[in-house]
Amino acid sequence: MIMTNQLFSRVGVRYEVALDVLGAIIAHHSEAIAAEREKATPDEAVIAAAQKAKDELRTIREDLDPNADEAIERVITQYGQQARDLYQ
After folding, report:
1. Distance between CA atoms of 27 and 31, rounded to whole angstroms?
2. pLDDT tens per residue, range 3-26
3. Domain residue limits at 57
């Protein structure tokens, strides 16, 4: 019974939102890298910058504690609008 409560807690749901937000931005950078690589003369600086951003976001995602509600909210606040803007 305790496991069910943890799975459907508000913090658990917000954790999933934070992961989705980060994942959406990571996916955008992956798409940007692929598009740049398809060009006749890819700009390696553009690729490197997108890769760096992707790596940083992956680290944030991997380090995010599912029980750290303040950190979860900080991720959503910091990156939520960016994710929305990318896919509107």
Report:
1. 6
2. 455 556 788 899 999 999 999 999
3. 11-86
User: Within 13 Å of residue 45, how many CA atoms lie on the same side as its CB?
Assistant: 0
Classified as helix, coil or strand, 80 is: helix
| 71-87: pLDDT as tens digits | 999 999 999 999 999 88
Q: Is residue 21 assigned to a domain?
A: yes
pLDDT value, residue 48: 98
φ/ψ (deg, to 5) at 86:
-70, -30
State the number of CA atoms in the 13 A half-sphere of 72 facing the CB.
16
In a domain, 43, yes or no: yes
Q: Which amino acid is at 66?
A: P
**Could you tell me the pTM of the whole model?**
0.85
What's the number of domains the chain is made of?
Answer: 1
In a domain, 4, yes or no: no
* 3, part of any domain: no
